[in-house]
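Sat 14:20. Reprocessing the chain from the morning session after the first attempt stalled halfway. Input below, unchanged.
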Amino acid sequence: MKGPEERTRTAKAVMFDFSGTLLRVEPVERWLGHVLADARISLTPTEFELCAVRLRDAGALPGGPAPREVPPELRALWSTRDRSAREHRAAYLGLSRQVPLPRPELHEALYERHMLPEAWQPYPDTERVLAALHGRGIPVAVVSNIGWDLRPVFRAHGLDAYVTAYALSFEHGVQKPDPRLFRAACEAMDSDPRDTLMVGDDAHADAGARELGCAVHLVRHLPVDERPDGLLPVLAGAGCREDVPSDA
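Finished this time. Tokens:
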């Protein structure tokens, strides 16, 4: 996961991925349930379960499980979905519309739901880690492949004060692993990439930071209650005096 140099280097700035690293989106069942309740639509337990399974298999929830298979007509769009808000919405609505729902407008409602702060939950150690870095004067950037502004999510969960900069793919027109997105974050923090640690859950996308000379630390994309302290090793990597485990 990390090379010898990465294990010994002390970071002077830290970049974090968003989904699956700092916060995780709600389960498909809760996502669907809220939208149906808001629309005052009742399904039988069997109908609800079938709908949820189909949406999960389609990969219709951004930040949720990946599609089992992307339909041929969506493959080109899927590969560039995080470059703009338009492409992101079109890609996920395209996946969602593979699934029959009681009303066609529910597809749009599902997409809108996933952008709400209440649809996201921080990992148990997220605030502790961000606060510790902030307290030591270590700048933090959030670097995310995303098609919408996640700043309100951080504000709602009381995390925004710890973040120095956001480098969001849809605002820059490039997506990870393109090193330009990581470079934008380093420049916003006024940090040398060689002194910067990238923390993420995707060995392909997030490891693109290595092209700039950044160290990379990968965590597991698990449900919130299954990963209580996966971020704590970052504190040791940034020279923070914390009693942390040696690995995630």
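The chain is about 35% helix and 10% strand.
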